[in-house]
Design brief:
Radius of gyration: 19 Å
Mean pLDDT: 83
Low-confidence stretches: 15-30, 52-58
Helix content: 25-40%
Strand content: 15-25%
Largest sheet: 6 strands, antiparallel
Distance between the termini: 62 Å
Strand order of the largest sheet: 4-3-2-1-5-8
Shape: globular
Number of helices: 5
């Protein structure tokens, strides 16, 4: 009888461990929804790039999906310089018909990868630390309080996922002590974030 109970306990423990693995080791797949007008699945750690235009000061804008499904970004449209939007609210900030390109963490290795989840978690936990939007002062990359869109994405992966998404092969490899502006163009050249398609609002 004791052996039967032990076997049952092992089976129950194995089931619980399996469920934990599904939701923790593969957290970026927990959303069943797709981005509007597309077949691209919404995943934690996705980076949304908005094309150049008057709304993005003609340099583009980037935001990251948190593990709660909200879109986190540093932006001058809110007084604090940082905000977490629902997808609906985020898309409403743009003119109808605007295009958004989705970048996913896709290094040249096989997954699963925890980096996107950890980056999305860091973004959610730290967006409240932003109190000023600026790309002309207090530019040190380790400075969260003064921020701008692409810097915040870099920080989410660097500090949240221990991953530098900059482009070392071009001789530009940011660190926390760097004070060079890191633009959406730099982000688009990342060797580990790959475009998987686009959608419109």
């Amino acid at each position: 009888m004791a052996k039967v109970k032990l076997k049952f306990s092992i089976i129950v423990f194995s089931l619980i461990l399996s469920l934990f693995s599904i939701f923790y080791l593969f957290p970026s797949k927990i959303y069943a929804a797709n981005y509007p007008n597309s077949s691209i699945q919404i995943s934690t750690g996705d980076v949304l790039y908005s094309s150049k235009g008057w709304q993005t000061f003609f340099v583009g804008h980037v935001a990251v999906v948190g593990y709660d499904g909200k879109i986190y970004h540093s932006t001058p449209v809110v007084s604090t310089g940082g905000v977490g939007d629902t997808l609906t609210t985020y898309l409403s900030r743009w003119d109808p018909g605007s295009t958004f390109t989705v970048y996913k963490f896709k290094p040249d290795q096989y997954g699963p990868f925890l980096e996107p989840y950890n980056a999305g978690k860091w973004a959610r936990n730290n967006v409240g630390s932003i109190n000023k939007y600026s790309f002309t002062s207090d530019l040190q990359m380790s400075n969260i309080a003064t921020n701008y869109c692409s810097k915040f994405i870099w920080q989410a992966y660097y500090y949240g996922a221990n991953t530098n998404i900059d482009r070392p092969y071009l001789g530009n490899y940011m660190s926390g002590s760097s004070s060079t502006i890191w633009t959406p163009a730099d982000f688009k050249a990342s060797p580990v974030l790959k475009s998987v398609g686009s959608f419109t609002n």
